[in-house]
Task: inverse folding
């Protein structure tokens, strides 16, 4: 848990500092670190692509309307080296996601932490440490 | 070069590459973080190796060593300064983040760093730098050769290399004026001339100094300093930035560093 927390803190700090999400654009130009998001929903699609992996989740808003959010992760290259697999998150998974929102899109964000119903977590950069 | 020596150098390079590929973590191999990457094998301690003919062996997957992606002026040789000519200062003021070629999946040029590993491949006549990032491209360095009189301007320019002791010196001219040195948009012109100096200081580290001389954009030359770290057991992965670059339409505002400065 301590490791998870460390990963979560590191990821949030990393996003907040706006360090190059992928070294191909300035994160500060795209995301507003003051617009926090906390979403729950079912994964509808995963794009295991560069320069960023993306996953999409259906989220019900306060009025009951379903919004399909597009959530960005680091690149598959970074994720793979940090323990993610291409199927670590899949369509049909129920997840809770915290992160920050894009400056000019109501349904686009950068996911800092993904929590699954069984409690395991994945971050923008890294997977949970394997059980030892 | 004597063909036998050539064969030896190539064989040596290939042997080293395959040795690294095949290398399982040795007992007691230390694990740690390298750049963004956790639980990586750390480089064993030891002196840098040489091929049988005495050529320093620069093989392996390396991380870092380029200039600051955020702002090229952040890591300079002590006493050096980035002094732009007035027109260049004016250009930087008006550049937008979304115009950065790197954000458009175009080359980051020299010496802009990236968080992805890279590799040098040494053959008798050509050295190649393979980049995982920097748009997953490559550079070729013509060893002990001369620049053409009037090279066509290109993103990575025309590079020639030679050894000065244990330091590989790469001299490049013939750049176009398109890539940006950093997120802030530091520009350059076709007069850009870079001199890179690569020295493998020990088995796990490479010192990299790059002198930027562009009288078209800067009042005086300056030199960036960096240090690359070996990532044993790592192979380069595919990175096709053009495939799903959804960020571009979302990038807002003036060119600036990742922290917004």
Result:
């Amino acid at each position: 848990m301590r490791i998870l927390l460390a990963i979560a803190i590191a990821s949030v700090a990393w996003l907040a500092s706006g360090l190059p999400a992928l070294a191909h654009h300035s994160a500060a130009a795209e995301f507003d670190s003051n617009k926090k998001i906390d979403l729950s929903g079912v994964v509808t699609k995963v794009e295991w692509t560069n320069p960023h992996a993306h996953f999409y989740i259906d989220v019900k808003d306060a009025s009951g309307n379903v919004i399909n959010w597009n959530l960005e992760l680091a690149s598959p290259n970074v994720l793979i080296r940090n323990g993610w697999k291409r199927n670590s998150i899949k369509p049909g998974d129920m997840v809770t996601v915290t992160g920050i929102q894009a400056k000019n899109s109501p349904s686009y964000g950068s996911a800092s932490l993904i929590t699954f119903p069984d409690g395991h977590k994945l971050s923008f950069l890294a997977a949970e440490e394997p059980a030892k | 070069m004597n063909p036998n020596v050539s064969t030896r150098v190539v064989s040596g390079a290939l042997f080293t590459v395959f040795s690294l590929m095949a290398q399982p973590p040795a007992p007691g191999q230390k694990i740690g973080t390298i750049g963004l990457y956790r639980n990586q094998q750390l480089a064993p301690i030891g002196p840098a190796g040489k091929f049988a003919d005495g050529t320093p062996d620069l093989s392996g997957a390396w991380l870092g060593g380029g200039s600051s992606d955020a702002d090229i002026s952040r890591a300079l040789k002590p006493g050096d300064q980035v002094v732009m000519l007035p027109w260049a200062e004016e250009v930087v003021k008006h550049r937008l983040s979304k115009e950065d070629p790197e954000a458009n999946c175009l080359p980051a040029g020299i010496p802009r760093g990236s968080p992805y590993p890279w590799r040098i491949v040494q053959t008798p006549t050509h050295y190649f730098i393979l980049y995982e990032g920097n748009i997953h491209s490559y550079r070729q360095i013509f060893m002990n050769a001369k620049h053409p009189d009037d090279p066509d301007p290109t993103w990575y320019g025309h590079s020639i290399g030679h050894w000065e002791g244990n330091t590989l010196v790469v001299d490049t001219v013939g750049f176009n004026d398109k890539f940006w040195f950093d997120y802030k948009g530091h520009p350059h012109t076709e007069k850009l001339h870079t001199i890179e100096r690569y020295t493998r200081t020990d088995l796990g580290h490479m010192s990299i100094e790059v002198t930027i001389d562009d009288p078209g954009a800067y009042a005086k030359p300056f030199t960036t300093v960096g240090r690359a770290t070996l990532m044993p057991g790592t192979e380069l992965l595919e990175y096709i930035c053009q495939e799903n670059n959804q960020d571009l339409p979302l990038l807002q505002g003036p060119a600036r560093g990742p922290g917004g400065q």
Observations:
- Chain A touches chain B through 38 residues (CB under 8 Å).
- Chain A has one domain: 2-123.
- Confidence is low (pLDDT under 50) at residues 3-22 of chain A.
- Residues 2-123 of chain A form a domain with the OB fold (Dihydrolipoamide Acetyltransferase, E2P) fold (CATH 2.40.50.140).
